[in-house]
From TrEMBL:
Signal peptide: none annotated. The keyword Iron does not apply. Residues 20-170 form the N-acetyltransferase domain. CDD domains: NAT_SF. This is Acyl-CoA synthetase (NDP forming)/RimJ/RimL family protein N-acetyltransferase. Keywords: ATP-binding, Nucleotide-binding, Transferase. Residues 682-719 form the ATP-grasp domain. It comes from Nocardiopsis sinuspersici. InterPro entries: Acyl_CoA_acyltransferase, ATP-grasp, ATP_grasp_subdomain_1, CoA-bd, GNAT_dom, NAD(P)-bd_dom_sf, Succ_CoA_lig_flav_dom, Succinyl-CoA_synth-like. The keyword Lyase does not apply. One of its GO terms (molecular function) is acyltransferase activity, transferring groups other than amino-acyl groups. It holds the Pfam family Acetyltransf_1.
């Protein structure tokens, strides 16, 4: 019977782009292990056992396959039901275990050893191990390099002809970076295998016109794919004039990519045949999977399990397909007959239905694509995989994504931030602010307020637009014009009314327009040329908008030639409203040898507002990319061990409570959460260097006086409920109480007003300041998120809050504060202040935000933190109220831990 955690099973991508399945070993693996050992070369056996060991005895088999998953753990890697690698550790001392692994010769060099080390290391840490020791023969250089390059802190000794390596299993920045780099290379190559096939089979190719199978085949042939195409039909000898085969197994040559267009109930059988054939990747255009409901989702999971187990990646199901416009490939494995020409834009779309319209619109605008992927239900290959590929793809300079949900939001934001530092990433998100995950797609619906989604995307460097039209508007600038170096815009035109529209639109978009240069309705090409030369040469101009409308005399192409020439020689972007045309008109295109649109082409827009908005997207992105990236400050007074113990104690001793929380824009119900406040909350916060003011619950006037005497004067009596603060304004608190009589009077007043509706507490008074609210915790779409706003009824009613992903850098913390509209209250002198020494200490507030973000990021058990109010005054940021909700930690946190593909149910 299984006695290991479910999350110890995982699908992983190998360095050559193939896949393997990792799982703990079981006694049922006896025959697989015996066969595995028999396939090993004598050299590999000698390196593993330090002696000839041609055969495993029955005793060896029992010992190796029977482990306790505590002190003895072994993981195996399988491909197509064959065992290809084994790693194990055996505890030899408290917190120390000996590790060893062996990889089948035919699969060495594929990265199995490295990924196995990551997973066995994670399992060992869960079981309390802190160190691995490994004995390796000096001539086993490959194995030594695996340990040395893992990024862990390591020590090495040499004794009696054996090298002993000692690895500290605590993750380091180096080990995390090594893991991320390997992940990027592996996932990139897995996508490259799909996009650069040498041969393609169409399984389900039909002799009937307008069917999916025949459409896919005709599009491959019509797109002039540079390799052989093999139709697969159970009966036909030929389909659309191309020889057909009864099954993929009967194709005499290697098949790299298979387009699957058969009924949903037949797909798994086809996938098994592809696995036997050695196909590298699948495009499943068939529908009838997760989008149809639970039964279809089961079929979809089986499809992915079967494919990954055989080393294949899957695009789809229920997808439009993929395309690669590289002339060396010319792959149109989509259901769209027409593809845009070669270009520098990579496009990912979840929607298959929308994909065809997107491709048509790209072509109509005169733009070009490098690659296109419509992932449909996104059961395996996702936008995250494509970002890994596009990061190092020299043919792709701009990335566009149409998103309906985020499968792994943490990974999305991490990859997007890294990619956006090199290439613009433009995303359009469908649905409203509380949209749930579309049927058939992986979990991850975006449940944040719309403006919060935008701010989190911006934090990651993603240019988030509202619709497909805006996406292409922005892409035209990114693909064909340089990035602006600043916000100052020059305006040139032959229509004063349109020029004023440009200026007004620029101000609304946060740009800084110069006064327009009006050339008049009779302006010639020479007039435009002179004006452009002057404006582009000005140091305080970073970009130019050119307005050109028809004059009374016949229109010539001279102005277009001027725009093209100036654009080609300028390092500043130029956009235009050339004759109200949209896209890259032929007159404004710089054309390559193959007729493709080149950089220097001038984007045109139908209205001044459209042109300015696209330019503003480019400007804000350029500012993000050029800004200081921020750093994670050292916080030496954090005690994670004490925090973990505090959480465990609170979860064990507290009574579960049900609580509805207005969490980041959506009502979130905590049915199995533990609410903590008072001493427990203060204790946990103190583990992260956060001091919360103590308060004492009181139920009578005399108790209030005693509490005030204990805490010290001046004192405060208040209703311990943020809800009352919103309902009652300042009437829920009595402050600046300096005598016992003041305390008695305050208690009586609040008790008379609220009765038993709210508990009353006594607290020492803090110096006057600006009251704020900090909330943090786990959001289902983005992971750990921090929210900030002022503790003011007006701010709450206007939803004046800002959001950032945790953990915060110092730049993120500053942005979080400045992003709220009421932020100026924190940067001026408070009422009654007479000197700068009384200005609120915003630096202390920034540090508090960073500490809170570290807490929620480090401990998934902390579901929600509510610091209300946090009073910011000249002496610091003072936490006057703290509540938390704890929960049992999930087994696996997305994008945390060793590499793995998005999961299916094993």
């Amino acid at each position: 019977m299984q006695s290991y955690p479910n999350h110890w099973e995982a699908d992983v991508v190998l360095t050559d782009g193939g896949t393997a399945h990792l799982r703990p070993i079981t006694p049922e693996d006896a025959d697989l292990l015996r066969e595995f050992h028999a396939r090993l070369s004598p050299e590999t056996i000698y390196y593993r056992f330090f002696a000839p060991y041609p055969k495993l005895s029955d005793r060896d088999i029992r010992r190796f396959t029977n482990v306790d998953y505590e002190d003895r753990v072994a993981l195996v890697a399988t491909i197509s039901d064959s065992l290809v690698a084994v790693v194990r550790y055996d505890k030899v001392a408290p917190e120390e275990a000996e590790v060893a692994f062996v990889v089948e010769d035919a699969h060495q060099g594929r990265g199995l050893a490295s990924v196995l080390l990551e997973h066995i290391g994670a399992a060992a840490r869960e079981r309390g191990m802190r160190r691995f020791i490994a004995d390796v023969l000096p001539e086993n250089r490959r194995m030594i390099n695996v340990f040395r390059e893992a990024g862990y802190t390591a020590q090495q000794t040499f004794d009696e002809g054996v090298i002993r390596l000692t690895l500290d299993l605590q993750p380091t920045d180096d080990s995390t970076e090594v893991m991320r780099a390997r992940e990027q290379r592996a996932e990139s190559r897995s996508i490259a295998r799909l996009l650069f096939p040498s041969s393609v089979a169409v399984i389900g190719a039909s002799r009937t016109a307008h069917t999916i199978g025949q459409t896919a085949l005709r599009n491959l042939l019509g797109g002039e794919f540079q390799g052989p195409v093999y139709p697969v039909h159970p009966e036909a000898r030929a389909v659309v004039g191309v020889r057909a085969y009864p099954s993929v197994l009967e194709i005499p040559d290697q098949v790299d990519l298979a387009v699957v267009a058969v009924r949903a109930d037949m797909v798994v059988d086809v996938v098994e045949q592809c696995a036997e054939k050695g196909v590298h990747g699948l495009i499943v255009v068939s529908s009838g999977f997760g989008e149809t409901g639970p039964e279809g989702r089961v079929r979809q999971d089986e499809l992915v399990r079967t494919a990954r187990a055989a080393g294949m990646r899957v695009v789809g199901p229920n997808c439009l397909g993929i395309a690669n416009t590289d002339p060396a490939v010319s792959l149109n494995a989509t259901l769209s007959p027409d593809l845009p020409p070669t270009g520098t834009i990579g496009f990912f779309s979840q929607s298959g239905a929308l994909g065809r319209a997107i491709l048509q619109r790209v072509a109509e605008r005169g733009m070009g694509l490098s690659t296109f992927v419509s992932a449909g239900n996104r059961a395996d290959v996702s936008g995250n995989d494509l970002m890994q590929y596009w990061q190092e793809d020299p043919a792709t300079e701009v990335v566009l994504q149409y998103l309906e949900s985020l499968g792994n939001p943490r990974k999305f934001t991490r990859l997007a931030r890294r990619l956006a530092k090199q290439k613009p990433v433009v995303a359009v998100r469908s649905g409203g602010s509380t949209r749930t995950t579309p049927t058939g797609h992986a979990a991850g619906g975006l449940a944040l307020p719309d403006y919060a989604v935008t701010s989190l995307f911006q934090q990651a460097g993603v240019v988030r637009v509202d619709d497909i039209t805006q996406m292409f508007d922005a892409a035209q600038v990114f693909a064909y014009q340089p990035l602006p170096e600043g916000p100052r815009v020059g305006v040139i035109g032959n229509s004063d009314s349109l020029e004023l529209l440009v200026k007004d639109a620029a101000v609304r978009q946060g740009l800084k327009p110069h006064d327009p240069v009006n050339l008049g309705p009779q302006a010639t090409a020479e007039d435009f040329d002179r004006a452009l030369e002057t404006v582009l040469a000005a140091e305080d101009v970073h970009s130019v908008v050119v307005v050109f409308v028809p004059a009374l005399h016949p229109i010539s192409d001279d102005v277009a030639r001027v725009l093209r020439a100036r654009s080609l020689s300028s390092a500043k972007p130029i956009v235009t409203t050339y004759l109200a045309r949209q896209g890259i008109p032929d007159e404004l295109r710089q054309v390559g040898e193959r007729g493709e649109t080149l950089r220097g082409s001038v984007p045109s827009y139908p209205s001044p507002e459209d042109a300015v908005r696209a330019l503003a997207y480019a400007t804000r992105y350029a500012q993000w990319r050029n800004r200081r990236p921020g750093r994670h400050p050292e916080l030496p007074d954090i005690d994670r061990a004490r925090a973990r113990a505090t959480i465990a104690r609170a979860l064990k001793n507290s009574t579960n409570q049900t609580k509805d929380i207005a969490w980041f824009g959506g009502e979130r119900r905590y049915d199995e959460e533990t609410a903590i406040s008072g001493e427990d909350a203060r204790e946990l916060l103190s583990c992260y260097g956060i001091t919360a003011y103590p308060d004492i619950p009181v139920s009578s006037e005399e108790e209030a006086v005693v509490a005030a005497g204990e805490l010290g004067y001046p004192a405060v009596v208040k209703a311990d409920s943020p809800d009352l603060r919103l309902r009652a304004g300042g009437a829920f608190v009595r402050a600046d109480l300096r005598t016992p009589e003041d305390v008695r009077s305050a208690f009586a007043s609040l008790h008379d007003r609220f009765g038993e509706e709210a508990s009353l507490v006594v607290q020492r008074m803090a110096a006057p300041g600006v009251p704020t609210v900090i909330r943090a915790g786990d959001n289902q779409s983005f992971g750990s998120v921090v929210s900030f706003g002022l503790a003011d009824v007006t701010a709450e009613l206007l939803d004046d809050r800002s959001f950032r992903l945790a953990p915060l850098t110092d730049v993120d913390a500053a942005d979080l504060i400045h992003a709220v509209r009421a932020a100026p209250l924190l940067f001026g002198l408070p009422a009654g202040a007479t000197s700068l020494a009384e200005q609120p200490n915003v630096e202390a507030l920034e540090e508090l935000l960073i500490r809170v973000s570290r807490l929620v990021e480090a401990f998934p058990e902390v579901g929600y933190v509510d610091l209300d109010p946090v009073l910011v005054n000249a002496t610091g940021a003072h936490v006057l109220g703290a509540r938390m909700w704890l929960r049992e930690a999930p087994e696996v946190r997305p994008d945390v831990g060793p590499r793995r593909l998005r999961g299916v149910t094993f």
